[in-house]
Amino acid sequence: MIAPPKLLTDPFIQSPTPDSVRVVWFTEFLGKEHIVNYGNDLSHQVLAQTTKLSRVREDQKSRVGKQIEDAQIYKKPSIRNVWRHEAQVTNLIPNQKVNYCVTSIQEDGQTVTSSVFTLSPAPKPGTPLKILLTSDHQIKPMVAANLQKVIETVGQVDAVWFAGDLVNIPDRASEWFDDNRGNAFFPCLQGCGHYVMEHENLKTIYSGGEIIQNAPMFTCIGNHEIMGRYGRKGSITQEFNDTIPREVALQLYGNDNESSNLNHETLKHKTSKNKALKNNSFNTDTYEEIFTLPESETGGKTYYAVSFGDIRLIVLYVTNMWRFPNAENGKKGKYEEPTADLKQPENWGYGQHIYEPISEGSTQHNWLIEELKSTEFKQAKYKVVMFHHPPHTLGDNIVPPYTDPIQIIERDRQNNIRKVSYEYPQNADYIIRDVIPLLESHGVQLVFYGHSHLWNRFVSPSGMHFLETSNVGNSYGAAYGKKQRKNLPPGDRKKYSENYIANGDPYGLEPTIPTIKPFLDESKQPLPYISSNDITVFSIFETATATVSSYYFDTRKSGTPAIKFDEFRLVG
Questions:
Q1: CA distance 478 to 484
Q2: Rounded to an integer, what distance in angstroms lies between the CA atom of residue 561 and that of residue 554?
Q3: Terminus of the chain with fewer CB atoms < 10 Å: N or C?
Q4: Model confidence over 494-551: pLDDT tens digits?
Q5: What is the domain class of 123-244+282-569 according to CATH?
Q6: Regarding beta strands 130-134 and 202-206, do their DSSP bridges make them parallel or antiparallel, or are they unpaired?
């Protein structure tokens, strides 16, 4: 008996304009026709264009189908066939919702049709909106519970802002579509998850929320959207960790036949699609193939700006490679290279290197300056910037500073390399030095980011707000009170201690205590953060009242409501 066809995802909304919107969905079959039906009676129809994802695979660590332990089925990285279907629905009227569904027809004529959802074009200025702010899902334990509570608490949102780290390993297909633990990216955001949480022998199943079928999502690149050198390693996880800077790739591989066309000019322009350069350094191909996003002339989908109702949202490409605090057991370190690799520069990690420059004079920084001068930005009621790496946080991942690693090579008397280390001067932090003053001077009201897997927020002396709301599990704690960061350099490096701040925000801002219901420490003093593997947090921006509200939910108590614990207003 032939199994009936099924969609790999529900359809979801992308890239709305004043009179159109894109509808995207995925299947595991090419099919012969893919259709969007829309209108109140679904009588209108548009055909979709189909493309195949070029890099998604499964491997030993995949949890998909019958593979519930390492390497049960997949012994090495194996290509997975996934097709993407996209149609543009046009001639829409702002602020009017329209029913839609999608149908995919297999080569043998069998059809599968989605449920009916609603779509609409970009909202007009003045439209009251509710926007979900989220980050760092990475198929973590509390994602499904978090998104389910969003819908239960505030109902359908009008958009999602996602501050990076959507999945854990971007080329592992099952993390996007059908991880058998029930918490893959699309199922959780579409209310199709099935994640089991257990507390005191009581099991609760969370399904996520039906969100992106009806609301567009705007995303930015985090470190987990980036894959390393293609095909050099025996697992997708190892490949993910095998990134090197573009400049190093040019030095190491520039004379190879495959890479003979690499030159410094290609390094200067983000729009370069040089496959050899990406294969030998890093790439965001899967991320860019999955999503249809607004695009900038110089950054494409990697950094862009978009108007949505009363908001001008600027999305930046601000992330670097996360490395281990030490280089023990062959790990690539933030501060040192493994001893075993000292004679093999092609195996070095090159520290916590930055993927896309944002320093003054860079292409992205110049683009940002022009965007801040634009009419669209100046006339927007709400001016928001989103990127991944934290400018201010109590979390671990703000150390070391966000700057290019300074490589220090120590040699013995025979000129043999005996140590390779990296330093990161705090006064050269590009976010603090080159970006934040620019945003302050142009009236940005909110900077939204993730990366450290906690909730905390700050306010600058000028009144600009900073919000990190990325607590969906696997929290690394907060460097507050007597707690210190774990990302500090190993050993005795006291002479560099001013660069690696163990406690609090390294750049001097005091965290803001939640305004409604903060958690208390052992001395009954209010805490300025939430960092938990049981309690999850989400935030909602409501444009009608200019408020950003944050809610927490104890996943061990499934029948209880989410609690609003903080609220602040954006003042123009």
A1: 8
A2: 9
A3: N
A4: 555 789 999 999 999 999 999 999 999 999 999 999 999 999 999 999 999 999 999 9
A5: alpha beta
A6: unpaired
